[in-house]
Amino acid sequence: MRNRGMDPDEDEYEEYEDDEAEVDEEEEDRGASSRKRRRSGFIDDDAEEVDEDEEEEEDEEDDFDDRGGRKRQYKRMAASNFFDEEAQVDSDEEEEEEEAEDDFIVDEGADLPEEDGGRRMHSRRMLPHDQEDHEDLEAMARSIQERYGRRATDYDEEATDVEQQALLPSVRDPKLWMVKCAIGREREAAVCLMQKYIDKGSELQIRSAIALDHLKNFIYVEADKEAHVREACKGLRNIYAQKITLVPIREMTDVLSVESKAIDLSRDTWVRMKIGTYKGDLAKVVDVDNVRQRVTVKLIPRIDLQALANKLEGREVVKKKAFVPPPRFMNVDEARELHIRVEHRRDPMTGERFETIGGMMFKDGFLYKTVSIKSISAQNIKPTFDELEKFRKPGENGDGDVASLSTLFANRKKGHFMKGDAVIVIKGDLKNLKGWVEKVDEDNVHIRPEIKDLPKTLAVNERELCKYFEPGNHVKVVSGTQEGATGMVVKVEQHVLIILSDTTKEHMRVFADDVVESSEVTIGVTRIGDYELHDLVLLDNLSFGVIIRVESEAFQVLKGVPDRPEVALVKLREIKCKIEKKISVQDRFKNTVSTKDVVRIVEGPCKGKQGPVEHIYRGVLFIYDRHHLEHAGFICSKAQSCVVVGGSRTNGDRNGDGYSRFPSLRTPPRIPQSPRRFSRGGGPPMDSGGRHRGGRGHDGLAGQTVKIRQGPYKGYRGRVIELKGTSVRVELESQMKVVTVDRNHISDNVAVTPYRDSSRYGMGSETPMHPSRTPLHPYMTPMRDPGATPIHDGMRTPMRDRAWNPYTPMSPPRDNWEDGNPGSWGTSPQYQPGSPPSRPYEAPTPGAGWANTPGGNYSEAGTPRENSAYANAPSPYLPSTPGGQPMTPNSASYLPGTPGGQPMTPGTGGLDLMSPVIGGDSEGPWFMPDILVNVRRAGEDSVVGVIREVLPDGSCRVVLGTSGSGDTITALPSEMEAVVPRKSDKIKIMGGTLRGATGKLIGVDGTDGIVKVDDTLDVKILDLVILAKLAQS
Amino acid sequence: MFFHIVLERNMQLHPRFFGRNLRDNLVSKLMKDVEGTCSGRHGFVVAVTGIENIGKGLIRDGTGFVTFPVKYQCVVFRPFKGEILEAVVTMVNKMGFFAEAGPVQIFVSNHLIPDDMEFQSGDMPNYTTSDGSVKIQKDSEVRLKIIGTRVDATEIFCIGTIKDDFLGVINDPTTI
After folding, report:
1. Residues 6 or more apart whose Cβ sits within 8 Å of residue A1033
2. CA distance A473 to chain B (A)
3. Angle at A462 between CA A456 and CA A463, to 5 degrees
4. How far is A748 from A718, CA to CA, in rounded Å?
5. Which molecular-function annotation in GO is an example for this chain (chain A) (predicted)?
6. B110: closest chain A residue by CA
7. Is A1031 strand, coil or helix?
């Protein structure tokens, strides 16, 4: 609608014309003699105009009509006959452009020549006085161009909205018709029409013809009636006038509206480069040349100085295409050191000083580059905080970028402000006025100002407002890299907030625009693709690390480099896979460390830190210390520089370890001492084998009771037997069979008894047999299922250690076991030395077997639950689990054939049916303080003593004498035996759930004692084995 | 700020506690359950000071448990924005320091520490003025102002400032 857009200009021109007319009148009055004076008058006029213009420029509110601007510019362009050539070129271009359209605008076209004349006159008058100063025409031409060419940019291209509205076509206006023409001949067709118009003059009643570059096969013709169009098209072979379509009034504007490519590229806008080395880089517009369609932008240079030096010195430059130097501020001194010539130049038009290196201009470290408008994109630019920060680098303070703010604001989403938002005015007279949003119109926001004396509401342009927060506000980030995070505002620096993140307790800097007030607490994004916060991932270059933060497109990964926290920012594609292996390693003292174990770091920079192990990989532990604020609390350390603390999870292992440190303990001497333990079980230990095979898998899942969530077995419960890749084998509780289901189809949080995991241990001891059995057999006994029978587990657990102990001489079972799943053994090399000779032991001397099973380096020990079972056993050494044994008595006989028989074995069966309390008993009679023991030492008579203290290695400090009055000695567990209490003795319970409780033995029934517990006054039936006589105090 | 208020709670009691000591059991259970907890509205329950009234128990079908509505007086502690508190520094790092005032954890960001105090890393990280006269380190006692609170189900987390008049270290452990 340019033709319409011209109307206001016309007014202006009319004014000029009026001026001229006046002058003319004067002229007429004074005659030719006044000519000279008149000229000078004009010059004055012009000078004034220039001043005006300059004022207008300074005042950046350039709601100018661009046409006006352009035309004025013309005047100057064509300013003088002296530089006809240059000027001509420019104006030609422009005029061509104009003619292309103007010629079709009949009514206005008529005015043009006059205007032109006017212009010419102006230009002639313009013959500037500074002409004398310049000898060199070219130089002058250049200077003029530089001086004015640039000015053009300051005029905005748009007419105001109201004017635009008034110009919209109405019913009374000529209509626009779409006429088909030959493809590729659109322009030709239009030109033909033009020619025809010129030839025939007013006979043609069309108003204009338009060919659009982007529209093939059609041209538009402006005319009042369709008949006029037909008339005009008659005889033109390029135009097929059969089909003429009317363009609806509403769409008429669209035909001529140019796609808004003339985005308001003004200075200080943020843009991004579209091509070249700087592709994607943020740049700030410092200058726009609309005429030549070029923009000068300020960039952070990506220059390889060395390469540049080489090039300048003519040395060979190796072209490395892929390499893009990182953005870095230009350091002139550095350049000089490389013998790059740095020139200082003053920009002739701005007077600013630049350093020039090989044609590139630098200032303050930034590169000033002039590029084509097409090579930058100016829409939807959202500079990130970091980028802006960089741009601010050389000592600008916050105030400097109010302008840049406007760009940020320009990209605001609709509905940015909402009623009730606290805002602050950042521009204009009301700057720093705070208020609350009351209502939002299109561009204006009505705010209720904080200050009372002001009117109730004020309408403020959206761009002059900024959200306002106060320290202490709890906010949520709604866009940008930190999107989704919440935190509390700690500090407000203009439009930048410093937020203390809720989860990481780290500071974040965000734009006030990007946050909203919120009481919600979230971590932000915690997941991209398959990778989640705190996952252990394998990276491209085979390094690995833990994800410590998830940003919108990338992860921060704490690399697995011990002793030195190394954080890398990785993109999704740089991650190879997630590492989900559950492995265990050994700490400094060869204790097994598995995930979730609490360790303390005893070496390195993080010495003293302590926390649970979250991930283990290649001997590197990732420890989560809640008090460690960096890296989301994660610390990376070598396993070797950590020690396990607490022991909730590792007791069992320590147990073994203890033994290994005291070799003497490994020998079987203890066996004699524990006949009682066997007594109850009465059978060979190994029998129990095979029952719970589940534990073989080396995943924590194995052995757990799970529920199947999907598939044909949906709803069934069962125990996991084995894990095979993504599928698991589950022994169904109700169907006595094993099915394979997808791992994702099970849910493993079925409530199970606390001992559930220890069943796995049991299984260890059972394995030996199992090969010989029919596969069914183990599962035939649903009642025995670990879930159902906590007892078992309790009883068996200790055994497992023994049976599987590396040091155990009896290894036949172990062999099998190994065959069964080598994987599980792999992690604990000690197991490997399978000792065939030990086989002989196997059946006959069960005790021997396990008595020395210290080496509980059971790699699987990691699962929490099982450990908890141990946890309450302070003296882990205590070798034997009385309960453990009993399970096996008869089963041996069953082995060959009748799996089903198992449950019936007196021992086991009985146990199974027992109340959990009793079951718990069997967990092991660890020695405790205050009980009476018989200490037997080689070559000495047994002496009665009172345990005063149980040492961490399992030995006890014993005070001799029944009342604890004699000497204090340290005795190994193998040398001690609890004094069997008699009826109505005060006793202490050494094992089971009541461990540690005291009571009175009110009766003895076979191997069971009837105990009245002091605390609860409950009467319990407990195995005599776990009862010890309490020392009188 | 501390308040002495009356709260109500439904207590479930196991049948085994029924008997002469029912009331005592109920009270001790109440204390166990309630003291140290935190609610967004009232803050931390510091101590139960008395029982106002125990309502009639209602046997719950199927379990044998009995529910008693108990009204009790208690002291609660709830931090407010703008409140001045005295707290003990528990941890110092480059982003600021954490301090505790009873059950409440308060973070004072380095932006909210006077500008003349600089972070000194090392064995005992601390914030020190340039002349070394004032030092904030672990176990220092500081007076601070709360500028923001965040209330979770189980904790109240505050952000404080010492960048104001009369705020800052009130007792330095090293000088004792």
Report:
1. A930, A963, A964
2. 6
3. 130
4. 10
5. structural constituent of ribosome
6. A490
7. coil
CA distance A264 to A349: 22
pLDDT in tens, A321-370: 556 777 777 777 777 777 777 777 777 666 777 777 777 888 878 888 88
The domains of chain A, with CATH numbers, are 2-162 (no CATH), 170-256 (3.30.70.940), 270-391 (no CATH), 420-517 (2.30.30.30), 527-644 (no CATH), 677-704+752-921 (no CATH), 932-1029 (2.30.30.30)
Residue extents of the structural domains in chain B: 2-77, 84-175
pLDDT of residue A407: 53
Q: CB A500 to CB B150 under 8 A?
A: no
Residues of B in contact with A627 (CB under 8 A): 91
Q: Which residues of A touch B95 (CB under 8 A)?
A: 500, 505-507, 629
Residue A394, min C-alpha distance to chain B (Å): 22
Contacts of B111 in chain A (CB under 8 A): 490-491, 498, 507
Instruction: Indicate the residue type of A551.
Output: E
Q: Identify all chain B residues contacting A517, using CB atoms and an 8 Å cutoff.
A: none
Cβ-defined contact of A473 to B148 (cutoff 8 Å)? yes
Whether A471 sits inside 8 A of B152 (CB atoms) is: no
* Structure tokens that stand for A281 in this block: 């880089």
The ipTM, to two decimals, is 0.80
Tokens of A998: 């005291």
pLDDT exceeds 70 at position A46? no
Query: In chain B, which residues have their Cβ closer than 8 Å to the Cβ of A471?
Result: 112, 147-148, 159, 161
CB contact under 8 A, B152 and A498: no
Is B84-175 the same fold as B2-77?
no
Phi, psi of A303 (to 5 degrees): -130, 130
CA distance A915 to chain B (A): 20
* pLDDT, tens only, A266-320: 777 778 888 777 888 888 888 887 777 788 888 888 877 777 777 777 766 555 5
Phi-psi region of A954 (alpha: psi -120 to 50; beta: other; left: phi over 0): left
CA-CA-CA-CA torsion sign (A984, A987, A992, A993): positive
Whether A506 sits inside 8 A of B109 (CB atoms) is no
Select from B93, B149, B159 the Cβ nearest to the Cβ of A490. B159
Cα of B138 to nearest chain A Cα, Å: 13
Q: Could you name the CATH architecture of B2-77? A: 2-Layer Sandwich (3.30)
Percent of chain A with pLDDT over 70: 55
- 8 Å CB contact of B148 and A471: yes
Q: Which pairing describes strands B135-136 and A444-449: parallel, antiparallel, or unpaired?
A: unpaired
CATH 2.40.50.140 holds for B84-175: yes
Task: Mark yes or no for CB contact B95/A502 under 8 Å.
Answer: no
Alpha-carbon gap, residue A811 to A808, rounded angstroms: 7
Assess contact for A1017 and A973: CB atoms under 8 A.
Answer: no
Q: Is the Cβ–Cβ distance between B175 and B109 less than 8 Å? A: no
